[in-house]
Amino acid sequence: MIHLKKSDPKIYKIIKAEEKRQKEGIELIASENYVSPAVLETMGSVLTNKYSEGYPGKRYYGGNEIIDQAESLAITRAKKLFGAEHVNVQPLSGSPANLAVYMALLQPGDKVLGFSLDQGGHLSHGHPMNFSGKLYTIIPYFVDKKTEIIDMDEVEKIALKEKPKMILAGFSAYSKNMDWKRFKKIADKINALTFADIAHIAGLIAAKLIDSPIPYFDVVTTTTHKTLRGPRGGMIMCKEKFASAIDKAIFPGIQGGPHDHINAAKAVAFGEALKPSFKTYSAQVMKNAKALAGALQKRNYRIISGGTDNHLMLVDVFGSRGVTGKEAEKALEHVGISINKNMIPFDSRKPLDPSGIRLGTPAVTTRGAKEKHMETIADLIDKTLENKDNETKLKKIAKEVKTFSLQFPVPGIK
Ligand SMILES: *Cc1c(COP(=O)(O)O)cnc(C)c1O
């Protein structure tokens, strides 16, 4: 970054400090990952200079013959990766992708059945402060109180009673597999549209390690930067019959010019995900998640729903140790372990200081961590929570975290 260093030393310093933080810390935020140097290079390329409103072959600006190739490549690779009929790679992120789906398929006020936000759904699945909650009537479904797994019989009951126009299946904090087929079956009984949001699990689906909703669902959205390990962005996949409505909802519906440098980086990431090494990586993400959950259970932490079938887990730190989610987040941040506080199902505490924390293994796995390292991470987490008010002990743990982390390189950081 020789130019930046000269022209804007302040931002240069900030980037260097963030590189150091990323290198020295343990990244367990379930939605984060480290992109490859090739993805980083593409995002930093001159493709950012171009305006290309419209779609390949149908642009509102001249000079797009080269950009068209990049976007088409992203689309072709995404289709191959997910087996989708139609793909739109232009959504700027996951939330705008979801906004476009609602816009394309619904009228304001329409009823949508979605996973309760305090049990694992996303803001864009009906939070009252989000467009989804403001514009549409969201009816929530829940997990079973005992098993903490989505109760599909209950989903069916609510669906038959409420007759929503659309059923939304997807999550940000749920560690079990979705029964896509059953969702589709229920939707067909009431003629409802089916919408899956696979933002968190897209990489595991691309690697064919967990079930995909794409064969069954009308529309599927994803982010590209979580388990899929691409640039920060979104994508919509759908059946051919919704293609035109979806494309129009993105442009001119809610967006102007696409971010061509990001879309080209999506193509690079999809290319990486098509390689056998991505399957090995994703399988390791899941093995590590199981190992981490097991190591925490061994130390008497309660994992919501009894374990994990994907890359993430919710830990009931309040129930297990009397430490709140907020306290846990702060203590762990203090020693260099990044996690986020999270509501657990039927939480008796408030969203800003809930009972749980959410942990995920995509990022540490990208750095090369294996099952045996999950034992060390569980130990570091446990020690931190046990000593959360002991500054001397926390300082010592912070050193251990740094030593542990520095054995694993971060892609793109020297
Ligand atoms: C992360 C996430 C999104 C939103 O993604 P942004 O890129 O942050 O807008 C949408 N849906 C689900 C389920 C998510 O987990």
Give a structural overview.
It is a single chain. The protein is built from 17 helices and 15 strands. It has 414 residues and is α/β, with parallel strands linked by helices. The protein is globular. The two termini are 12 Å apart. Pyridoxal-5'-phosphate binds at residues 31, 93-95, 98, 122, 124, 170-172, 197, 199-200, 223, 234.
What is the CATH superfamily classification of the largest domain?
Type I PLP-dependent aspartate aminotransferase-like (Major domain)
Tally of structural domains: 2
Q: In the CATH classification, which architecture of the largest domain applies?
A: 3-Layer(aba) Sandwich
Unreliable residue runs: none
Number of strands: 15
In percent terms, what proportion of residues is strand?
5-15%
Beginning-to-end CA distance, first to last residue: 12 Å
Query: CATH topology of the largest domain, anyone?
Result: Aspartate Aminotransferase, domain 2
**Highest CATH level, the class of the largest domain:** Alpha Beta
Shape assignment:
globular
Instruction: Estimate the mean pLDDT confidence.
Output: 97
Taking all Cα atoms into account, the compactness measure Rg is 22 Å
In DSSP terms (H or I, runs of 4 or more residues), the helix count works out at 17
Determine the structural class based on helices, strands and strand pairing: alpha/beta
